[in-house]
Amino acid sequence: MRFERxxxxxxxxxxxxxxxxxxxxxxxxRPMVTEQYPFEKVPTQPxxxxxxxxxxxxxxxxxxxxxxxxxxxxPADAIFVQGGDNQPEEQYSPGERYGRVYQINYLRCIFCxxxxxxxxxxxxxxTNEYELAGPTREGLIYEKQDLLAPLADGMxxxxxxxxxxxxxxxxxxxxxxxPTQDQVEWVRANRPDDASLAAVRPVAAAKGARQ
Length: 211
Ligand code: SF4
Ligand code: SF4
Prior knowledge:
The chain is of the alpha+beta class. It has helices at 10-15, 22-28, 69-73, 114-118, 144-147, 168-172, 181-190, and strands at residues 52-54, 79-85, 97-105, 124-126, 141-142.
């Protein structure tokens, strides 16, 4: 059966030659929605998938344990992780392992968020930052130092020992509320020039610390 258009009425016949301008004319009286980026930046939605961040625990230790699950989950092969063993004198994260090398290639990343879903420690999350452009290809491969969250108020820079009497489980449960005096003393003895010592705010003890 052949499709036949409905026949036009007399008004339709009159306006037929200019009907295509209908959308144009009706849009002329609506408010403009053009964004003046980059002069005016419009905030993103709170859950917008932007640049990644490697988070820390409240005492400053890193949440990444170098397990590589994020790299395996990535459909674009954009993440490269190499784990390392924590040492008593160089403890970067709770437990045995930490992310020694961590790279995200933003030329490959499609911002799908599968990597952050795969992360078992919530070390990896995504920020709202979307200004990811640069003049070189190498510059768009972000290294660990580019992705690591800055120290929040009162935190102590890693490496330093875990809170005395705690296991990595205590960190995962959220029982660590900040650096303790023991950790501050350790950094003071081993890295007296560490900048984070100036602003560190030690807490009494961790909730789950075993005596
Ligand atoms: S957001 Fe998606 S593409 Fe980007 S690194 Fe994570 S898993 Fe890979
Ligand atoms: S970011 Fe998460 S998933 Fe990726 S290596 Fe670190 S702990 Fe594992």
